[in-house]
Hints:
Elements: E1 7-9, E2 15-17, H1 18-22, E3 26-32, H2 41-51, E4 55-61, H3 73-84, H4 103-108, E5 127-130, E6 136-140, H5 149-159
Amino acid sequence: MSLPDLEVETLHDERTTFGALMGERATLVVNVASKCGFTNQYAGLEKLHAEKDGLAVVGVPSNQFGGQEPGSAEEIAEFCSTTYGVSFPLLAKTDVNGADRHPLFEDLTTYADEDGHAGDVRWNFEKWLLSGDGKVIGRFGTGTKPEDPNLVAAIDAAIN
Length: 160
């Protein structure tokens, strides 16, 4: 099954496909958390979402890293909206590692990041850039900020 065909659940309990969220656009998938030292990356992700025509950003809350996403769906949505003005879609809280890993991350974790790491997600705010047809173009580690020139160049190449 291709990534666009995968069934996902949004933070608002809506069942859809990943492809419906992508809308045939390049997509940046980011595992996110509200109480992490990297949470301020939400601002840059929202800026990319708003300013990069042809790019979708999809946030995937996970509580698997230091318990840094403990809130309910409503609390996560409220925090993201009021603190960072997040308007991009967020999935329901999701396991990205382990036996209950979502099929989306079964696929995404097979790709290596810029340091050559493939496999388990190592921390919050790892990023995967997908082409409009759902093929993984690149994986970027937690320390890669949304405004990083290498990430922005990869996004620009994917949307042009």
